[in-house]
Amino acid sequence: MTTNQELFEKAKALSNHKQLTEEGHAGYVGSALLTEKGVVHTGISFSGACGIGYCGETGAILSMLKTGESKIKKIVAVSNDFKCMPPCGRCREMMYQVDRENLNTEIIMGDSTITLRELLPERWQQLWE
Ligand SMILES: [Zn+2]
Question: Considering the entire predicted model, what is its pTM?
Answer without folding.
Answer: 0.95
